[in-house]
């Protein structure tokens, strides 16, 4: 372990080689864990026809940080798979919405727990599972259900991804990750679900062995590329003001 | 006089039982973290894996890594724990959440509700609501009784696509606290100065006083 | 959280009220995480017709520590669900084996990963899932399979338990658990799968707040009873010698 | 002269590629942690969630909380991580293990093998073998070529209940290293002084030299 470092020097290097048509998981729930710098690099990198998986396409708030919605605006996205694909208030409009309404991008709207479990299933070699979420709703129309012990469940399939873009607090050179507080959210399961896991790291990358094995949140064997986030203004470090 | 939103939060929280694990939806339900629970031990669970969170942080004491499911900068009292999204929804689907309090567009006497898709919208605003609605032991709704144009949100059956069927236990509005019974909304409490006739006039479903 | 302590004073108090017919998950893989003291208390408590879930019924080695095999010998077990229900070498005989051969106790032999995933599914509200393990073997005979993306999978059902008996390293009064090293094994998923989670704890129970929320392995809302393990000879503290 | 067990371990480990994640079964396969891997970076994974473990601890330096899947007191070099049993088998089922090395009762030219149930046994000794056999990218077997009474363990088809079908890539015995091809065992290497005729005599399946 750790003979070779997984650290790369820049965000651009970190996203190099992501292919057109890739399915990409974007970590984060609200601000914590959102890979703003890697997303910005992907906007520059320009991969096309992406399938973007994340909790949301990005809200209507300003100032905006790089998100799936910006990739949509940049013409890089074929489809999104999210638990939010519209604005909570009818008066708000997501940047994503006009593209969706014009049919320029497709969307799959998934209950958040189902999204999490489909990612986890992909990372666990479980191709499909049953869940009670969504039964009896429009989402279940025409889909396969099954009654188990007297209750109706919906069949859901694993959601494997080609790439995960994540942000965490600490990492060592072997790729072991630690998230801080609510930053953990989708991070560990997106790492499990993805073939290429790329992480922007807030603290300087630690030498292998600096993280106690009991305190690792994502084991390094799941992680391929790490990049340390330089101080602002060379990188995106959102402030409290932007997220209120 | 109808209840204010903090009064609605306070009244609804009186329905919580000691020891409950409580999940709060975005918007109005977040007011419940401000309610004094007295002797009751209540644990707040957020979809993003924050278990046992406390009140919103005082200004200047926010932790940029620590938000609840409504993006509020919250605090962590002793005994709190963090899990990932899969484990957080594992707690939800396995029935560990005693009550979820959700905002909604519509509540129905048949115990359905609709809070994820407005008319004509492409896409939806599901978040964790479908998992919570299907699996929490109790589903409480918190909402305005009518839309701004005066249309009732309290219906016999939902007009919008439902979030879950037959799962609602309580609905609180500015006018009162209700239990949907299948056929009607049963009145459990009424805001001061509000009459049953006021409620009937504002409700597009049978009301059982 | 933590207004009321979950700490009980003795192992006997910790297992009080476990009903006849309960399904009980026993933590541990080899020595680490095995709830020897709680198992000893269950032998005294005497609940009958138990369904015992664990990695193994207990090996042929001596000296023996309390295990599922001893509960079988004590006439308390109706069925075991384990990944090992025979001895690896034909020359060895598990204490459990004669009871099984005489039909006095039933057994379900389950691949270890399937056992882990069935427990995790129960704790995740997933009633059933598909797995590739066991396809084409005797275990799959007569059972439901399904081809997904060209590969054959076996349908497996969640394994919910009434009680989990676990051993961990540290806990706080709110029930948050930390396992040390290989002690973690089945602990977190058995806690997820069970209604009543009872834990013997090696270190003195900590006040709520003494464990950083990022370093909790099992959240306290899953745990009901904690008991601190007193020093030997008042409790079982196996030594290296016994486990070689 | 047939290979010794350490020689079998050393020879089989030469089949590993740089960067592989390796899982070792109980018994003979554990000898592989003693092999000098040279420039190759190999990470050992154990079913009980110990990722990146190192050699067996020196006497007096054992950690009572730290065993591998064979109950050996191992060590944790820098970069190691611990996960629970569900996450450990998630790594296995999702194809993250490059090779599992398993002991076995029988290996078959049709790429089946049988290592969980002896004749007449009630119950079985499955452990993690079925998950590993079904999902590891490569399945290597390590075993004695014959039973003590001289019966071959190298068969055209298994006589015992199989652990997985069509998954075996390599078999090493004291006589040689083999690749089951479906119809035969193809000889990849031979222990010093052992002849192809010796192997044919000890093998109850076609041997392809």
Features:
heterotetramer; A: about 240 residues; alpha/beta; Glutaconate Coenzyme A-transferase; 7-stranded parallel β-sheet; 3-stranded antiparallel β-sheet; B: about 210 residues; 8-stranded mixed β-sheet; about 15% helix; globular
CATH overall fold name of chain B: Glutaconate Coenzyme A-transferase
Please count the beta strands of chain A (DSSP E, at least 2 residues each).
Answer: 12
**% residues in beta strands of chain B:** 15-25%
- Strand numbers in spatial order across the main sheet of chain A: 4-3-2-1-8-11-12
H/E element string of chain A? HEHEHEHEHEEEEEEHEEH
Number of helices of chain B: 4
Q: Give me the CATH superfamily of chain B.
A: Glutaconate Coenzyme A-transferase
| Chain pair with largest interface | A-B, 51 and 48 residues
Largest sheet report of chain A: 7 strands, parallel
CATH class of chain A: Alpha Beta
Pfam family, one (chains A, C): CoA_trans
Family (chains A, C): Belongs to the 3-oxoacid CoA-transferase subunit A family.
Protein name (chains A, C): 3-oxoacid CoA-transferase subunit A
Keywords (chains A, C): Transferase
């Amino acid at each position: 372990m750790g003979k070779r470092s997984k650290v790369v020097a820049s965000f651009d290097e970190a996203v190099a080689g992501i292919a057109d048509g890739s399915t990409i998981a974007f970590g984060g729930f609200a601000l914590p864990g959102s890979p703003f710098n890697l997303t910005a690099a992907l906007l520059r990198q320009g991969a096309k026809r992406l399938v973007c998986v994340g909790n949301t396409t990005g809200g209507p708030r300003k100032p905006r940080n790089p998100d799936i919605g910006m990739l949509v605006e940049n013409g890089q996205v074929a489809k999104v798979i999210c638990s939010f694909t519209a604005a909570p208030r009818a008066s708000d409009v997501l940047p994503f919405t006009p593209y969706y309404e014009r049919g320029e991008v497709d969307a799959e709207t998934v209950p958040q727990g189902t999204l999490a479990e489909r990612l986890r299933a992909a990372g666990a070699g479980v191709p499909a599972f049953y869940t009670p979420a969504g039964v009896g709703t429009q989402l279940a129309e025409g889909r396969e259900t099954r009654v188990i012990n007297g209750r109706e469940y919906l069949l859901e399939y694993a959601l494997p991804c080609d790439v995960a873009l994540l942000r965490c607090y600490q990492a060592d050179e072997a790729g072991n990750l630690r998230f801080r507080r609510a930053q953990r959210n989708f991070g560990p399961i997106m790492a499990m679900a993805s073939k290429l896991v790329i992480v922007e790291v807030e603290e300087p990358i630690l030498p292998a062995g600096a993280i106690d094995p009991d305190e690792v949140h994502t084991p390094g064997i799941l992680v391929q590329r790490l990049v340390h986030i330089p101080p602002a203004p060379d990188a995106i470090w959102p402030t409290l003001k932007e997220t209120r | 006089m109808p209840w204010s939103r903090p009064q609605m939060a306070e009244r609804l929280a009186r329905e919580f039982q000691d020891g409950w694990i409580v999940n709060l939806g975005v918007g109005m339900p977040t007011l419940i973290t401000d309610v004094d629970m007295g002797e009751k031990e209540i644990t707040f669970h957020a979809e993003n894996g924050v278990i046992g969170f406390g009140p919103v942080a005082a200004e200047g004491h926010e932790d940029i890594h620590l938000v609840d499911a409504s993006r509020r900068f919250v605090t962590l009292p002793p005994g709190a724990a963090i899990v990932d999204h899969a484990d957080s929804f594992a707690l939800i689907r396995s029935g560990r959440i005693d009550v979820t309090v959700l905002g909604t567009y519509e509540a129905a006497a048949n115990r359905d509700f609709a809070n994820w898709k407005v008319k004509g919208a492409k896409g939806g605003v599901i978040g964790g609501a479908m998992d919570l609605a299907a699996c929490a032991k109790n589903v409480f709704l918190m909402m305005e009784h009518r839309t701004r144009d005066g249309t009732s949100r309290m219906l016999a059956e939902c007009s919008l696509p439902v979030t879950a069927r037959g799962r609602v236990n309580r609905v609180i509005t500015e006018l009162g606290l209700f239990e949907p019974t299948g056929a009607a909304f049963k009145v459990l409490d009424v805001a001061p100065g509000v009459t049953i006739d006021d409620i009937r006039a504002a409700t597009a479903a049978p009301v059982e006083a």
